[in-house]
């Protein structure tokens, strides 16, 4: 369940528990409800066909033995204090909505979040002073020498001890009868015999459970000589909480890291595993997704991100298991431990803002979260004893799966167009996308399989996480300003802005290490694509040709912008005194237009083609045809042919009104000298 609030999670858990209670009731089970902490003197039994419902994380303290033949449902934490022996039937179901605590003294209950956090942290650390089985820890190989010393000691008393890397196992010297420990071999004060199916409130699959139902399974019975025996027992635990998403609201978005999976802590004077024991450890939470301001997804905001940054959260590490004992730990029957999956990294998407006036496009940087490693090197110290089924140990470690890297996507913003006279287009935004790496999966490289010709491994499979995909697109550059933005339409065109560069790096697939596994597969690298932004077009102008912008760099380069069109005869503005000279020479005496064609062109069309602040216009009657003559005091063209091309450039606009309009006369005496051309309309 992704992105769920704590309040909503509690509601879901309560609903799930209510449905389970209704299910048991519909099945005919009688229900006993305890809604507040309760102390029971003497023994207490949950008969077959009965469901004990514990509400509000109530503490049930039993002065004698606790015998469960029916079922237990807890809407929150399951808190049991038993001063005598405990027996849970193999047909029982224990459904819990939070943490599990089963202890032999009320003083051992973890009552605050600080106490729970401390126990959680200690469950991932190697114990220094007791017989230990677990935790899974990447640093465990550093204790190999100490483990080997304990194995040498174990050999003296005829016990086989599997060390942190299972190296040089002495199983060949030990028989099953020498290793097997029955209940009768050691006297104990009490026995906690745990059987049945223990599952989170959301169902049998831990990954379907809400991500904050519980953090620990805590079974502590080490006050006296209490033995914990597991038989026909299956435990499923809560996955780590997903990191919160951070989307659509900020220019810098950061997804939270996923939380670690819940941890199981078992401690007693003696711990024994008989047949049919399966412990499913929790997976890590997914890293939160991150996405910067997005107007389509959140219309209430404006994307004004000159730099948009998105960081996906890293995946949470998988759950863990730690068993400690004063006398010893014995694996007499089949024990399967399924490590949880490493959490996947969160995705990241960054959107640079399309530029406002006078700005380059916003840059975008996106970094996917890394998948969590799953380095399941099992630490073992002291009297940890194991029987063998023929040539094979009774311990099986399930698949070790690391988390996948998060995807990353970055899109640069569009550069602004040039708006002012001769202004160049602005650069498109750059885009950088780095996807998250897949997590590393590690099982010990050990000598055990060499002893049995690699026919079967203690570890089933080791799978590295997949690398995330990366995609980046640079923003397009803006177009350069046209000459129309200049006074009188005279000015060079602005160059087009360059497209933004794009850089992508896919996540690396995680390694898979461990020759002891039946299957070994590293994660594939992610895919990567990058496309540079297109360059903006150059503006149309005078004097020279404006350049189109360059395409941005990327795996796929952006297209260059088109060069602007060059109008050689738009020239420079005519000074006022020059216009006066022309007017004095011509006298501006209007011709007689009687008897000529009525074909005419609107002044607005003429002024757009040949601006009045650049050219002096005179109308005349030549041989019964209307003639327009345009003059300027300082011509910027270099040749007479250039003057003619400039005159003909807008001829099609005039021909829409006078189809027979032609350029009839051209006068040119040199660059920056007076020049003119005539257009006969009919």
Category from helices, strands and their pairing: alpha/beta
Main sheet record: 22 strands, mixed
Kindly state the number of beta strands: 45
- Number of contiguous helices: 9
Average pLDDT for all residues: 80
Q: How would the global form be characterised?
A: rod-shaped
Low-confidence stretches: 141-185, 203-212, 446-457, 573-593
SSE blueprint:
Elements lengths: L5 H21 L3 E5 L3 E3 L3 E3 L3 E5 L4 E4 L3 E3 L2 E4 L3 E5 L3 E3 L4 E4 L3 E4 L9 H10 L8 E6 L7 H13 L19 H4 L10 E11 L15 E6 L4 E11 L9 E3 L3 E3 L8 E11 L3 E4 L9 E4 L13 E5 L8 E12 L3 E4 L9 E4 L11 E5 L6 E2 L2 E4 L2 E3 L1 E2 L2 E2 L1 E3 L2 E2 L6 E4 L19 E4 L6 E2 L5 H4 L7 E5 L6 E4 L28 E4 L6 E2 L3 E5 L6 E4 L44 H11 L16 H7 L6 E7 L2 E8 L7 H10 L1 H5 L6 E7 L6 E6 L2
Parallel strand pairs: 1-4, 2-5, 3-6, 4-7, 5-8, 6-9, 7-10, 8-11, 9-13, 10-13, 11-14, 13-15, 14-18, 15-18, 15-19, 16-20, 17-21, 18-22, 19-23, 20-24, 21-25, 22-28, 23-31, 24-33, 25-34, 26-35, 32-36, 33-37, 34-38, 35-39, 36-40, 37-41
Antiparallel strand pairs: 12-22, 12-27, 29-30, 42-43, 43-45, 44-45
General description of the model:
This protein has 682 residues and is α/β, with parallel strands linked by helices. It is 12% helix and 31% strand. It is built from nine helices and 45 strands. The chain has a 22-stranded mixed sheet that branches. A six-stranded parallel sheet has the order 16-20-24-33-37-41, with no helix packed on it. A hairpin with a 6-residue loop joins β44 and β45 (675-680). The chain is rod-shaped, with a radius of gyration of 41 Å. The two termini are 80 Å apart. Mean pLDDT is 80; it is low at 141-185, 203-212, 446-457 and 573-593.
């Amino acid at each position: 369940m992704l992105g769920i609030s704590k309040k909503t999670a509690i509601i879901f858990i309560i609903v799930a528990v209510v449905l389970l209670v209704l299910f048991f009731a519909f099945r005919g089970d009688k229900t006993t409800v305890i809604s507040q902490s309760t102390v029971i003197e003497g023994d207490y039994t949950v008969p077959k066909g009965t469901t004990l419902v514990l509400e509000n994380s109530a503490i049930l303290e039993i002065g004698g033995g606790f015998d469960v033949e029916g079922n237990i449902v807890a809407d929150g934490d399951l808190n049991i204090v038993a001063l005598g022996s405990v027996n849970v039937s193999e047909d029982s179901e224990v459904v819990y909505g939070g943490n599990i605590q089963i202890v032999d003294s009320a003083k051992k209950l973890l009552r605050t979040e600080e106490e729970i956090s401390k126990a959680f942290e200690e469950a991932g650390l190697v114990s220094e002073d007791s017989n230990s089985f677990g935790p899974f820890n990447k640093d465990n190989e550093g204790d190999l020498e100490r483990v080997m010393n304990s194995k040498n000691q174990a050999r003296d008393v005829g016990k086989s001890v599997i060390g942190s890397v299972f190296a040089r196992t002495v199983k060949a010297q030990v028989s099953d009868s020498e290793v097997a420990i029955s209940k009768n071999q050691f006297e104990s004060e009490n026995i906690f015999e745990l059987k049945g199916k223990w599952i989170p409130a959301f169902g049998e699959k831990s990954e379907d459970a809400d991500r904050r139902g519980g953090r620990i399974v805590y079974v502590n019975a080490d006050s006296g000589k209490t033995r914990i025996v597991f038989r026909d027992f299956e435990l499923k635990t809560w996955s780590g909480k997903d990191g919160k998403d951070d989307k659509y609201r900020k220019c810098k978005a950061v997804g939270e890291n996923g939380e670690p999976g819940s941890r199981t802590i078992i401690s007693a004077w003696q711990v024994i595993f008989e047949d049919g024991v399966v412990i499913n450890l929790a997976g890590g939470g997914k890293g939160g997704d991150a996405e910067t301001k997005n107007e389509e997804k959140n219309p209430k905001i404006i994307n004004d991100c000159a730099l948009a940054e998105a960081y996906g959260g890293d995946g949470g590490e998988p759950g863990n298991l730690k068993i400690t004992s004063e006398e010893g730990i014995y694996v007499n029957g089949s024990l399967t431990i399924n490590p949880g999956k490493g959490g996947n990294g969160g995705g990241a998407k960054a959107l640079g803002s399309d530029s406002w006036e006078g700005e380059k496009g916003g840059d975008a940087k996106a970094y996917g979260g890394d998948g969590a490693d799953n380095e399941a090197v099992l630490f073992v110290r002291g009297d940890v004893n194991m029987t063998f089924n023929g040539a094979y140990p009774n311990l099986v470690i399930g698949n070790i799966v690391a988390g996948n890297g998060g995807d990353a996507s970055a899109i640069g913003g569009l550069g602004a167009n040039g708006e002012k006279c001769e202004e160049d287009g602005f650069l498109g935004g750059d885009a950088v996308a780095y996807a998250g790496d897949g997590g590393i999966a590690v099982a010990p490289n050990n000598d055990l399989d060499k002893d049995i010709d690699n026919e079967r491994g203690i570890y089933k499979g080791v799978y590295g996480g997949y690398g995330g995909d990366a995609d980046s697109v640079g923003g397009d550059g803006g177009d350069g300003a046209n000459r129309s933005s200049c006074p009188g339409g005279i000015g060079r065109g602005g160059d087009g802005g360059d497209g933004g560069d794009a850089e992508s790096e896919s996540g690396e697939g995680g390694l898979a290490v461990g020759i002891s596994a039946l299957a070994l597969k590293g994660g594939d690298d992610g895919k990567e694509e990058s496309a540079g932004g297109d360059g903006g077009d150059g503006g149309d102008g005078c004097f020279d040709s404006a350049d189109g912008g360059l395409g941005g760099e990327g795996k796929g380069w952006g297209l260059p912008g088109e060069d602007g069109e060059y109008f050689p005869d738009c020239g420079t503005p005519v000074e006022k005194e020059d216009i006066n000279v022309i007017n004095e020479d011509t006298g501006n005496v209007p011709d007689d237009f009687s008897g000529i064609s009525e074909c005419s062109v609107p002044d607005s069309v003429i002024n757009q083609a040949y601006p009045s602040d650049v050219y002096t216009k005179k109308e005349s009657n030549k041989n019964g045809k209307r003639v327009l003559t345009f003059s300027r005091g300082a011509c910027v063209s270099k040749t007479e042919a250039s003057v003619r091309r400039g005159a003909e450039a807008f001829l099609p606009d005039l021909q829409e009104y006078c189809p027979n309009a032609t350029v009839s006369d051209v006068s040119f005496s040199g660059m920056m000298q007076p020049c003119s051309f005539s257009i006969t309309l009919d």
